[in-house]
Write a structure and sequence with these properties.
By secondary structure, the protein is an alpha/beta fold. It is built from 9 helices and 11 strands. The chain has helices spanning 41-57, 78-89, 100-108, 112-129, 134-139, 142-152, 155-162, 191-196, 240-243, and strands at 4-6, 29-34, 62-67, 94-96, 167-170, 173-176, 211-214, 223-227, 230-235, 246-252, 255-261. The protein has a 6-stranded mixed beta sheet, with no helix packed on it. A 5-stranded mixed beta sheet has the order 4-3-2-10-11. Helix 1 (41-57) runs parallel beside helix 2 (78-89). The chain starts with a strand and ends with a strand.
């Protein structure tokens, strides 16, 4: 089921061509979007501190933090990242998107074939972050690993992951883990596209009526793809698990700024 919260955009925006400043948020709204964390608790904790400082130093606003998905896998402490995100939600508005790695994690709980895929693409580190030792992992069959996941991953963690959203719309911005299918309306996107898409989204060369903020596809720097001067998309996955750089995008009105933890 597609989990959607926000006013979805069903019509073209008449001001798009007239507003040279580009996409914007409603007055008084501030958003920080954080790219793929992938188990890097050290970088996530730095980013939390930087966002808290940045938010305090700016004028008062209705602030929202959006985690763009792929909190888990590949890095060393997925369990810690989940705990930190849940703790942050107790202190401020933080919304979480489902990434393709969360999808694999959740599917692996009931499907051995999905478990093999999950473990192959970074799930091994996730399982061990919840307490499975390397020695135990090496001696267990896939069926046994599935049983151990059920034992060591708390039910409330699974429920929290299952409650994550697929898409968030705020003003002229759409927030999705991987992107959107440019051939479909924003309010008719499939979970598969939102969590997995690369092409034809990444190279889409026709103007869209929204600006999509996404992760999923690693780039050396924040990538802004413009069509006719208007940004179709802003990619902020700088490969934290591999590069040691976690990136966030700040938005308010028509202003945009980039923050990095490294």
């Amino acid at each position: 089921m597609l989990k959607t919260i926000g006013n979805l955009l069903g019509k073209k925006r008449s001001h798009r061509g007239a507003d040279a400043r580009g996409p914007s948020l409603p007055e008084g709204r501030r958003i920080y979007a954080i790219g793929d964390i992938h188990g890097r608790l050290d970088l996530f904790e730095q980013m939390i501190a930087r966002i808290e400082t940045d938010d305090r130093e700016r004028r008062d606003a209705d602030t929202l933090v959006i985690l763009l998905g792929d909190l888990v896998d590949r890095g060393p402490d997925s369990a810690g990242v989940i705990a930190a995100a849940r703790d942050w939600q107790q202190k401020r508005a933080v919304r979480v998107l489902t990434g393709n790695h969360e999808e694999m994690f959740l599917r692996s709980l009931h499907d051995e074939a999905a478990l093999r895929q999950f473990l192959r693409f970074g799930g091994r580190e996730t399982v061990m972050s919840f307490g499975l030792t390397p020695e135990e992992y090496r001696t267990l069959s896939h069926a046994d690993v599935m049983k151990q996941i059920e034992r060591i991953v708390p039910a409330d963690v699974i429920e929290w992951l299952e409650s994550a959203e697929d898409i968030i719309v705020e003003g002229d911005y759409v927030f999705a883990h991987a992107g959107i299918d440019p051939a479909s309306p924003v309010d008719d996107q499939s979970p598969s596209a939102l969590r997995w898409i690369r092409e034809p989204f990444l190279s889409h060369d026709e103007a869209m009526d929204v600006c999509v903020v996404h992760g999923h596809t690693i780039r050396d720097e924040v990538e802004i793809r413009r069509v006719g001067g208007w940004p179709n998309r802003i990619g902020i996955d700088t490969g934290a698990f591999r590069t040691g750089r976690l990136t966030a995008l700040g938005l308010q009105g028509s202003e945009r700024w980039v923050m990095e933890a490294s």
